[in-house]
Amino acid sequence: MTGFRPEGAVLFDLDGTLVDSAPDLIAALTTLAHEVELPLLEDKPILASLAGRGARVLIRCGLGEFPEDREQALLERFLSLYSASIWQRSRLYPGIMELLIALAEQNRPLAIVTNKAERLARQLLTEAGLIERFACLIGGDTSSAPKPSPAPVLAACQALGVNPDQVVMVGDSEADMRAARDAGVRGVAVSWGYAGVASMNEWPADVIIDRPDALIRWLENF
């Protein structure tokens, strides 16, 4: 890759990277389980680990067995419950706002690349007071395929008008890092998200960081 420009773009995953959204997702799933009288997986760390993998995975893995033909109705009700309380318990991770301010002061184009549905991602960012900080939002239903496909990363690069070799993708999952690698952008894995650190060294990441301000220091090396 060529040298990274000081003003190079930074793409962020959302759930587990910028926002701890698991509490509101789990609350919506708990309400759904009670409504439809299905058992709920009680292991909260496991439920949290599923938070970044999409609503359908959360329902399939978090609820007891149900007929396949019920899935769509369960999904729609879950999304309705979640949308109604999307920013009640969720919070930015410590240091994230300071990181975004610092990157803006460096005139770096910023974008969100998430597997969350675009309308929900937009709602979450709006209620969190972050939407104006990003020039582009690519949701899981925006491009031709979600991460780990490189398609959403490349779509963000195109929307920002930047070459992939001048872009960094920041995320908390292997899917983020695989999407980054296959799109030809640098991958920065964060250890504070939902995936856990056990297998992070096996991901195709350029670096693993333990706190948001470490990203600034890492970018300064280019």
CATH homologous superfamily title of the largest domain = HAD superfamily/HAD-like
Total individual domains: 2
CATH fold name of the largest domain: Rossmann fold
Class based on secondary structure composition and strand pairing: alpha/beta
- Strand segment count: 8
Mean pLDDT: 93
- What is the element string, with H for helices and E for strands? EEHHHHEHEHEHEHEEH
SS element count, helices: 9
Rg calculated over all Cα atoms: 17 Å
Which spans have pLDDT < 50 for at least 5 consecutive residues? none
The helix fraction, in percent, is 40-55%
Second CATH tier, the architecture of the largest domain: 3-Layer(aba) Sandwich
Quaternary organisation of the protein chains: single chain
Strand order of the largest sheet: 5-4-1-6-7-8
Structure description:
The chain has 222 residues and is α/β, with parallel strands linked by helices. The chain folds into two domains: 9-20 and 91-219, HAD superfamily/HAD-like (Rossmann fold, 3-Layer(aba) Sandwich), CATH 3.40.50.1000; 22-84, no CATH class. 41% of the residues lie in helices and 13% in strands. The protein has helices at residues 22-36, 44-50, 55-62, 71-84, 96-105, 118-127, 151-160, 174-183, 213-219, and strands at residues 9-12, 19-20, 91-92, 110-113, 136-138, 167-171, 186-190, 207-209. The strands form two sheets. It has a six-stranded parallel β-sheet with strand order 5-4-1-6-7-8, sandwiched between helices. The protein has a two-stranded antiparallel sheet with strand order 2-3. Helix 1 (22-36) packs across helix 2 (44-50) and helix 3 (55-62) packs across helix 4. The chain is globular. The protein starts with 8 loop residues before the first strand and ends with a helix.
